[in-house]
Automatic annotation (TrEMBL):
It is a multi-pass membrane protein. The keyword Transmembrane helix applies. This is Tryptophan-rich sensory protein. The lineage of its organism: Bacteria, Pseudomonadati, Pseudomonadota, Betaproteobacteria, Burkholderiales. The keyword Transcription regulation does not apply. It comes from Limnobacter litoralis. Keywords: Membrane, Transmembrane, Transmembrane helix. Belongs to the TspO/BZRP family. The chain crosses the membrane at residues 12-34, 54-74, 86-104, 110-131, 138-159. It is found in: Membrane.
Length: 166
């Protein structure tokens, strides 16, 4: 099976578009997190909380994996399932970007926790939909689901243990 140049170009253009979207959301979250390290250091945290320096590399990896997962889904034949997967993916990205604003910029612990819990559910839906369309895409989303599981538990903990800050 041969792939012509316009098709190859279109495939890589779509990968580039998903990478841009994911890293645009990352940038929006980073904008809200300019003083995150100082704020994070003030919080009463559990012993299992990751160090502040872990978040940047982990999120960079996760955004890259998410973009590649969505790209794999995008390359599957057009269908209602693919459309649903793309919509859920974009919606969860919105809540992903919103979390940093809620937590780090506005210090709204309850809202950040609710956002994180909703994001977790949306990611789970993505995993299921992606898995049905392309198993490797579903697998690429599992580290993201695992990290947001930890982040949701951490959001709950710091919200509950920092009532004057959140």
């Amino acid at each position: 099976m041969s792939i012509d140049l316009p098709e190859i170009t279109l495939r890589f253009a779509s990968l580039f578009a998903w990478l841009i979207l994911c890293f645009f959301v990352a940038g929006m979250g980073a904008t809200a997190s300019i003083d995150a390290a100082a704020f994070y250091a003030q919080l009463n945290q559990p012993g299992w909380a990751p160090p502040a320096g872990a978040f940047g590399p982990v999120w960079t990896t996760l955004y890259t994996l998410m973009a590649f997962a969505m790209w794999q889904v995008w390359l599957t034949p057009a269908s209602p399932l693919r459309k649903a997967a793309a919509i859920v993916f974009v919606v969860q990205l919105f809540f992903n970007g919103l979390w940093s604003w809620l937590f780090f910029h506005w210090h709204l612990g309850a809202w950040a926790f609710a956002d994180s819990a909703l994001m977790w559910a949306l990611i789970l839906v993505c995993v299921v939909l992606f898995w049905r369309l392309k198993r490797s895409a579903g697998l690429l989303m599992l580290p993201y689901l695992a990290w947001v599981t930890l982040a949701t538990a951490l959001s709950w903990y710091v919200w509950q243990h920092n009532p004057t800050l959140l």
